[in-house]
Amino acid sequence: MGKRRGGNKSSASCSGKSSYSNGFLVADATCGGVNDEVVDVAEERTESSNLEDSPEVKALVGSDKTSADYYFDSYSHFGIHEEMLKDVVRTKTYQNVIYQNAFIFRNKVVLDVGAGTGILSLFCAKAGAKHVYAVECSLMADMAKEIVQANGFSNVITVLKGKIEEVDLPVTHVDVIISEWMGYFLLFENMLNTVLYARDKWLINDGIVLPDKTSLYLTAIEDAEYKEDKIEFWNNVYGFDMSCIKKQAMMEPLVDTVDQNQIVTNCLLLKTMDISKMVAGDVSFTVPFKLVAERNDFIHALVAYFDVAFTRCHKLMGFSTGPRSKCTHWKQTVLYLEDVLTICEGEALVGSMSVEPNKKNHRDIDIMLKYSLNGRRCQVSNVQYYKMR
């Protein structure tokens, strides 16, 4: 899976107009974005401390971790957690959801799926949870135990190291499941199925899953300059034809921030997932789309993004990862088209998108895109295949 500009996902470098503030939203039908409802929340400051040079820490900080390592090992390094924690849209929304809806957590047993550093567990404990079971499979679980102890919550938070599908909880049921499971394109890494497994095994009847709603959106953009730099580059490399690599590059969606001024069409809701009710098979789907041009322009790529909602709160809370909202570490997912489409205002690009986990590696995603345009200046029909890996 590609990433623009050297692959730096840090939200610190993101720019663009924000329609998000402090994790509060009401649905915006115009582009799957959010409207602001600003609430002042006191900022929490966490003091850092030096850690002894233990084998666990050496494993976390060591430079021997590569992209070829086992999936959970990538979450053993502190860097990826630093990136997620510094994503203010993400982390502050969860904090606001928990602190401002303490009635959901007070005196309740909570399961934190994929706990990482344990930040969500700490939020829940501070909100008055009876007990929190923080399950983390990577080596970060060892750090999470130290973090819990350092902050005085060892009597409330139990960190369990292992896969959700393999750990034994000391309780038969939990009242609340909380998780930050979303990946690029919402479903990359397929952690959603892990949350559904935990829900079916441990959540009480009428229990709460947070977040409980996610929505995937699609739009089309003009992106000639970057497509030329990234894709067409392979046609002539110092006088040599390397277009065979171009075909491979086209198959890998890119993760990057999209300027909202690049958007050519409406933003269409593709799929909504109700985490409290859906089943594992629902992560595979085929949905039709119709994108209507809002101006005369070219289309070089389709762009996917998602919204997250916590509907069990006093009032609707959540965030958007769309190009018209404040940037997150998820950015957006860009799928370049083989064709350059010339579209006129009011004309429609129609087709369907099929999404399913890869059969060999269920954490990868296979995408099939069918599209056609029958316009005044352009008539085209095509099928393209993508793989997020």
Largest sheet: 7 strands, mixed
Bin the helical content.
10-25%
Shape assignment: elongated
Order of helices and strands: EEEHHHEHEHEEHEEHHEEEEEEEEE
Which segments are poorly predicted (pLDDT under 50) over 5 or more consecutive residues?
A: 1-13, 15-72
Strand content: 25-35%
First-to-last CA distance? 5 Å
How many helices in DSSP terms?
Answer: 8
Oligomer type: single chain
Instruction: Give me the secondary-structure category.
Output: alpha/beta
Q: Give the beta-strand count.
A: 18
Average of the residue pLDDT scores: 84
Q: Using only CA atoms, what is the Rg?
A: 22 Å
Characterize the structure shown:
With 389 residues, this protein is an alpha/beta fold. Helix content is 19%, strand content 32%. It is built from 8 helices and 18 strands. Strands 1, 9, 10, 11, 13, 14 and 15 form a 7-stranded mixed beta sheet that branches. Strands 6-5-4-7-8 form a 5-stranded parallel beta sheet, with helices on both faces. Helix 3 runs parallel beside helix 4. The N and C termini lie close together (5 Å). Mean pLDDT is 84; it is low at 1-13 and 15-72.
Write the layout of secondary structure elements.
Blueprint lengths: L1 E2 L23 E2 L4 E2 L20 H7 L16 H8 L2 H12 L9 E5 L5 H8 L4 E6 L3 H11 L6 E5 L12 E6 L12 H11 E8 L2 E9 L2 H7 L12 H9 L2 E3 L11 E7 L10 E8 L4 E14 L6 E4 L11 E12 L4 E10 L7 E10 L4 E10 L1
Parallel strand pairs: 1-10, 4-5, 4-7, 5-6, 7-8
Antiparallel strand pairs: 2-3, 9-11, 9-13, 10-15, 12-16, 13-14, 13-15, 16-17, 17-18
